[in-house]
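Quick illustration, no need to memorize.
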Amino acid sequence: MIQTVVKRDGRIVGFNEQKIMAAIRKAMIHTDKGEDDRLLYQITDHIAQRGDSQMTVEQIQDAVERAVRMWLRSISPIAISAL
């Protein structure tokens, strides 16, 4: 379970699920499937529960991209860049 995040500047901060949800939501609105709150929560929970206790921003971003691709399979390059 993710507890802390190593920011790009090296600071360590508490994990904030709302930031993950915002990134996933941005990606979803750029797909043909649109935004899906149920799916949004599933992906967020999946990432938060399966992550290491401390992860970098880049590791979390990679996990978001993999999870969105796995569940939506139609994510566009525009959506990936929104993450």
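The CA atoms of residues 31 and 76 lie 6 Å apart.
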